[in-house]
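Recall that a protein's primary structure is simply its ordered list of amino acids. Everything else, from secondary elements to tertiary packing, is in principle encoded there. The following example makes that idea concrete.
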Amino acid sequence: QLQFVESGGGLVQPGGSLRLSCAASGFTLVGYDIGWFRQAPGKEHEGISCINSADGSQYYTDSVKGRFTISSDNANSTVWLHMNSLKPEDTAVYYCAPCYYHSGYVYYDPAYNGYDSWGQGTQVTVSS
């Protein structure tokens, strides 16, 4: 099973920035597409970004395009999410997980951990 530890969340004012980290536990990133997902209160998980660890290709959903940047360091088995121009609607618990991208959307890939297998996540709150 692929395990991840998310960190870096916090309270930030609208327009602010945060950088989230996703540390892969016990495996290297090479060969996996890893993405960021978020879940706002009362809502389903939403895929927002996915990175191909082999060639670095990045994918984003429209809700975060131009504001968020995903990157990875295969040597340190870490994926980051740099979030700028944060909005109150970005408030959610953020998770990383295996992903794939199709037709403008980022999806959770159940091939490795089964369906709906999430880590502890990291809380991001955007509020003044």
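The mean pLDDT is 93. The CA atoms of residues 11 and 98 lie 26 Å apart.
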